[in-house]
Amino acid sequence: MGLMDKFWMWLGVEREEIREEIVDLPDNIDDGSRGISNVVSLHTNKTVKVVVCEPDSFDEVQVITDHLKNRKQVILNFENTTPEVSQRVIDFVSGATYSLDGHSQQLGKNIFIFTPSNVEIAQDHRSLMRKHGYNNPFGGEK
């Protein structure tokens, strides 16, 4: 107890003493596993799989959604599919994608992409400009 502490006590002011405990953690825990550290690689998925499907009937939706559940991207091509079946498949796969926190986007008139939650769909800046009517960003016609 120092002189200042005695002075503060004489005035009736008590100071709360804060103690810090410093805990040293070992650099490498030896668990008998040949010196392997506890470092986990963030790059666990070395290959990304994209599945391209051309469904002919609604019976194929379970296989398509299983691909999404297994964290694979799915591209659906409906060019040779009837509009009724296409709409039913899109509705079902869209619902499954939403429930898995995934993403979806229409790529063309009859082509759609559905991705799991670990894949983000980003649009090219040129396609965004075309969408908003800017065909030539360096002047000229709009």
Q: Tell me the overall shape.
A: elongated
Specify the CATH class of the domain at 50-119: Alpha Beta
What's the overall average pLDDT, rounded?
77
How many DSSP H or I helices? Answer: 4
Category by helix and strand content: alpha+beta
Sheet having the most strands: 4 strands, mixed
Overall CATH architecture of the domain at 50-119: 2-Layer Sandwich
The tally of beta strands, per DSSP, is 4
Order of helices and strands: HEHEHEEH
Radius of gyration: 30 Å
Strand order of the largest sheet: 1-2-4-3
Low-confidence stretches: none
Description:
With 142 residues, the chain is α+β, with helices and mostly antiparallel strands. It has a domain at 50-119: SepF-like protein (Translation Initiation Factor IF3, 2-Layer Sandwich), CATH 3.30.110.150. The protein is built from 4 helices and 4 strands, in the order αβαβαββα. A 4-stranded mixed sheet has the order 1-2-4-3, with helices on one face. β1 (50-53), α2 and β2 form a beta-alpha-beta unit. The mean pLDDT is 77.
Blueprint (SSEs and pairs):
Layout: H1 3-11, E1 50-53, H2 61-69, E2 73-77, H3 83-99, E3 103-106, E4 111-115, H4 125-131
Parallel strand pairs: 1-2
Antiparallel strand pairs: 2-4, 3-4
Helix pairs in contact: 2-3
Keywords:
single chain, 4 helices, alpha+beta, 4 strands, 142 residues, elongated, Translation Initiation Factor IF3, 30% helix, 4-stranded mixed sheet
What's this entry about, in short?
By secondary structure, this protein is an alpha+beta fold.
